[in-house]
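Q: Protein A?
A:
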Amino acid sequence: MATLKTLQMNEEARRHDAATWAERGRLIVRSVQNLSDTLLSKARRMTMMNILMHLYLCIRLTKLKTTVERAFSEEKVTLQDATSRVAPVRLRLGDGWDAFNALLVTRVKGDQGFRRVALRRYALQDCRRRRGNRYDISWQSFMLPGSQASMSIVRSSNLTSGDEPLHGASCPSCVSASTVTTSEGTRW
């Protein structure tokens, strides 16, 4: 009978151990579920924050891009030089006319008419306001943002291009003869 009683006690201990392990398993499962719910909630919150941050940055970038584009478009003048090349020129040049002249000299270096540009023997006209260049007013006052400037070279018979004197008056771009002669020389 002792063995029967021992068997019953062993069976009872096994049931108790099984119940204990089952309870521990349920606690572990509940803990894992709570942890996964917490992690899922935090992941959703982080995803939402990332989406909101992305939208905010997209809006700010669009506004910044628009502001920069507007600023750059308003700060430029379109120049058509004597050879009919068109290029944007920054309106806010450091030294005004001196900086503009240095820009032109650099731009036409090696081209026909270089010497005349270097000697400032060119005329510039604001196409929108139909007025010619005047060195007594500032560059920024002469040209307005978004303006178009047209350049022509003034040519006198006593000027030289390189080593040889200039004869006649022809455009360096199209080589056509000029019909306009002023006291300063010939313009085309």
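Q: Protein B?
A:
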Amino acid sequence: MSVKKIAVIGSGTMGRGIAYTAALSGFAVTLQDISAEALDRAKDGNVSLSVQSAEKGYITNEQRDLVQQNIIYTTDLQEAVASADLVIEAILEIMELKIETFKKVEEFAPEHAILATNTSTMSPTEIGAATKNPARFVAMHFFNPVHRMKLIEIIRGLDTSDETVEAVRQVSEKMGKETVEVNEFPGFVTSRMNCIIGNEAMNMLMEGVASAEDIDKAIKLGLNHPMGPLEMADLVGLDSRLRNMEYLYQSLGEKFRPSPLLVKYVKAGRLGRKSGQGFYTY
């Protein structure tokens, strides 16, 4: 199956980044969100990123123009998915909300369209089972920032077909990404490791082992990670990280119990970069 048109549902950090990268790669993209204000922010962010990237020589002027020409922004779900070959959902990590969204998508999307969730932890089998054709359902786990990170995890649900996996692999490669294929298990590969490292860093901070800055510095310089685990959590959003940890705790048990410090910060509204304060102040 040849994918030419992609619909992205949700215009937050991940959705906006997926739309940008797809447009940059030559796909026709529609980015949908229920909030017009969120769409305006996404459009401004994508235009600004494309202009700055062209000025710095990271992309050509032609690629800059592709980003601005190839993305349609809309609050209308039917308009977004009506002619899509691939629909990628990038909304909150709430199972019920994802299932509800895909049920609505199926009302308007073509029968041939592949449906993909950008979940970092949740079951594509469970979400796909709520759709009419689980064989064309898959998880495509992108990483933030999407335009720079090279990996996409492709996660098979129980009924995901080989044809679906191959189609999203080809899309990923056209976006300039490397892929790994994962058989579904809670947290997949990267999120399972990332969550447990980050959670331990939070516990160490809570116990007074070291400052946030020194914990992150030790991981970056001692283990050669490009970003410290507390910096990473702030970037992802502490509320998002807590939802992921709660899901993994329910699925995999005690070792994924969320750090009390994470719970406290979320209750206090310290959500990381997006709120201006998390483990660091922005």
